[in-house]
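User: quick one, fold this
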Amino acid sequence: MAWKMDREGACGRQLARCIRSSRVALVSAILFTGLAFATLLNSWHLLPELGCLFRDRTGLPCPFCGMTRSIIATFELHVGRAFSYHLFGPLLVVLLLISSSAPFLPGLRERSARWMETHSRTCVWAANLGKILFLLYSFGRMLYTYMNFSGSVAS
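Assistant:
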């Protein structure tokens, strides 16, 4: 039990170190800016329609199918449409916005890093719950697509 607590404490310290790191904020800012630029190009119809190789081969949506459209719709402030494309797209945009604005809000960055150090079990639990929900959502989308488009399963 002590080993497990120490491991979770190490996870909390590692998360806090990532939040305090300027590299993480820089990568998040680059991703956020790139996504905003892609949204701008998409609104001008300068981006080609890219398909999903997994969906082309199997006919089923991959776990990230709709994520690009969801992120673009979020940047265009069409939140309802964004959630209809992919449930986790707007959440990803919010996380990128928060992590890329961290260098400009040092008090918030330090407070959140301290919170993650003291609540490491909650952070690990939330991260694992997020992974499970993402997998369940992806599996549900695949099952829904299969049930609706396969003549032998759906009646």
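User: anything notable?
Assistant: The mean pLDDT is 79.
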